[in-house]
Every structure is written in structure tokens, then in C-alpha cells.
Amino acid sequence: MNKKISRRIFLRNSSFGVLGTGLFRNHTFATNINYQKNELSGKLIYRTLGKTGIRVPVIGMGILTSGSPALIKAALDAGITHFDSTAGQPQQIRNEEMLGEVLRGRDRKSIIYGTKVHLPQDYKTGLYEKTATEKEFTRILDTALKSIQMDYVDILYHHMVSRRESAFYEPVMKAMEKAKKAGKTRFLGLTSHNNVPEAVNAAADSKFYEVVMASYNPRQLDRLQVKEAIASAAEAGLGVVAIKVIRGDIEKGHEPINPVASLKWVLQDTNVHATIPGFSNFDEMNIDLSVMDDLTLTDDELNDLKREKSYSGFFCQGCGQCLKQCRAELPIPDLMRAYMYVYGYRQPALAHTLLRTLKLPRKLCDDCSSCQVVCLNGWKVSEKICDITRLRDVP
């Protein structure tokens, strides 16, 4: 029963195989925009990351997986100067190596580069485990600097904070403070995917962090609280970078989410200084860049947003209610994030890496006659878990 399945079989037997070829097709909002450097020049919209003084286009680039160096070169030629990745994971190390090669020979001061360091947390509480040490944080950062071939990053992020206590976790703060004093980073930041208002408010209160990177999109049930927290952070002088903005692909029975409308919705909040969408091909890059022609939402885009508010896409709200309901005590939000990586971002390698870190039992959802988890998104959680965990058996 545990026999290995190949990547090809996994993709063929799942809707991911369809998603990989069907993204954005036959939808007017995703018409290909021919990339021309001259057409885009002068149309970039810039904002400043709070008191850091860093000025960047509102569209940056999140490096999700090691893709085509040509895509990064095209992004640079189009005027994108703000790049971001996550340090420590094998796939991300390859990203850093690739980006370092592409940036070699370019003026370092012309690039704004941020990296995120994540240490082990208890998925139930959001608090750190004993292995989350100052030494480990520093090791991951130093490895990232070597991979990217840089002496420093512009922004060093304390990654995936969901609790106020974690924002003030002393080993991480000490490591970050020492890194800044040593010239390994110019500014210090914090990122949050879950329980965003608490984490962002903690960052603003700390007088330590200078940038926050926060999940923010029109499908968040707590988007008003997120908006208020972001406003408080911006008022305190923090730079604000929005992530998880485009809630991506086609799920059976639903129209695809309009990425242009999602980006415009977020960027109309002037307390948001930048976004870093993780585009992985030229069409997606052109779609994202097209937003800067005009941030005004059209009637069609407003209608799309209205339609989409009742549809979560592949976005887990991160509310944590499922953790209290699951008798097997599974890390459901992380499993849903893996599901999103595959079906929303079309990045099975990221999901595979995440699944291998979760210390899951061999059999999942077999002991329950019916799943007791009631998801705010209306998801059939057990079906998604059984689907995504097949990826563990892919070499």
C-alpha cells in the first residue's frame, strides 16, 4: 500500500495536471501582455518602505522555486528591483544560487533583496521549540549569504510569526541584532501568515522591527483587522510588504481568481508600500506588471472581487479552529499550505519539502469514520489531506 508513486502519475491522477496547463486561459483579465521594456518604462509606481527610506516599485518578485534565469533578467529589465526568498530550505538554496549568478556584475546598491529565516515552532501554539536557537538562526543566514554571493541583505525577516510572544523571542532577536551590527543586513523585519493582526501589532510595538511582511487579500475573513494593524504599523514608520495577495488557480466548480483585481485591491491601501507576487513565467510577470498602468479598479474587476469574496480559492484562513477539532491533532493549516503550493502555485517541490518537515504519521484520516473538522472555508479537509499527502511517496 505504501509503494512509491512517480511524479508523473501523481500529476496525471490529480487536477494539478489540468491546472498546470489551464491557468489563465480563456479569461479576458489574463490576456497576454506583450513584454516590451520601452512600453513599461515610466509607468512604474514607486513607494517608500516607511522610515527605511528604501524606494521600490509596488510590484516586486518573490522567488518561490528555482526557475528560469531569463525570467529574473526580464524582471530586472522591466524595472523590478525588489526580490525576496526564504533561506534554509534545499529548494530555496538553489533559488539563491541562481539569483546570485544572475545578479553578478550588477550594482549591488541597485537591488533590494530580502531573505526570511524560519526556526522550528510548535504548530499548535505558534511558539518556538527548544531547537530554535540563536546559533541556528545565524547559521541559516550565513548559508544564505554564501549562496546568494552577497555580503549583506537589505531586509532580514523573522519569518512566520503568529503570536506576540514569538515576535519577542529573545534568541531570534539577539541573532538579528548581531547580524545588523555585523553588517549582514541593513534592516530587520517580521513576516506573518496566520493571526496577522496580533503579529503586525507586536512588530509595531517592539520598536525593533523596521519592516513587516503580512498576508493581506480580499478573501481574508479578518481583512478589516489586518487593514487596521497595517495602518498602525505604517503610522509607526514601518515599511509594509503585502504577501499572499493573489489567491490563485482554478478549483472545480469555480472561476479562477482575477490576479489583477486582487493586486489592485491591496495596492489601493496606501499603507501597503510593496507586494512581492511569486510569478513563475513570463505571462504571470506581465499580468502583475500591467497593474502599474492604472491602479483604478474597473467595473469588471469590482464584480470579480465581489464574486470572489465568497470563495477562498486555495487560501487557508489560518484561524486554527481545525487544530482544536482534529482528534488526530494533525497540523492542518500546514497541510493546507502544502495543498496551496501544489494546486494554487503549481510548485509541488515546495509542498514536498514542507510535508517532509511535518513528522506526519504514516496513515492519515483512516481512524475517523467521518471528519469532525468544520472549516471556515467550507473545505472537505480530510479529502484535501489524503490528496496532498500522496506527494510524500513521490521520489
Average pLDDT, all residues: 84
Q: Distance N terminus to C terminus?
A: 16 Å
The CATH architecture name of the largest domain reads Alpha-Beta Barrel
What fold name goes in the CATH topology slot of the largest domain?
Answer: TIM Barrel
Largest sheet strand order? 3-4-5-6-7-8-9-10
Output the keywords.
single chain; 395 residues; alpha/beta; TIM Barrel; 8-stranded parallel sheet; globular; disordered N terminus
Account of the 3D structure:
The strands form two sheets. The chain has an eight-stranded parallel sheet. A two-stranded antiparallel sheet has the order 1-2. The protein is an alpha/beta fold. Helix 10 (223-235) links the parallel strand 8 and strand 9. The protein contains 17 helices and ten strands.
Write the layout of secondary structure elements.
Elements: H1 7-12, H2 16-22, H3 37-40, E1 46-48, E2 55-57, E3 61-62, H4 69-77, E4 82-86, H5 90-103, E5 112-117, H6 134-148, E6 153-158, H7 164-167, H8 170-181, E7 185-192, H9 196-206, E8 211-215, H10 223-235, E9 239-243, H11 259-267, E10 274-275, H12 282-290, H13 299-308, H14 321-325, H15 332-343, H16 348-357, H17 381-388
Parallel strand pairs: 3-4, 4-5, 5-6, 6-7, 7-8, 8-9, 9-10
Antiparallel strand pairs: 1-2
In short:
By secondary structure, the chain is of the alpha/beta class.
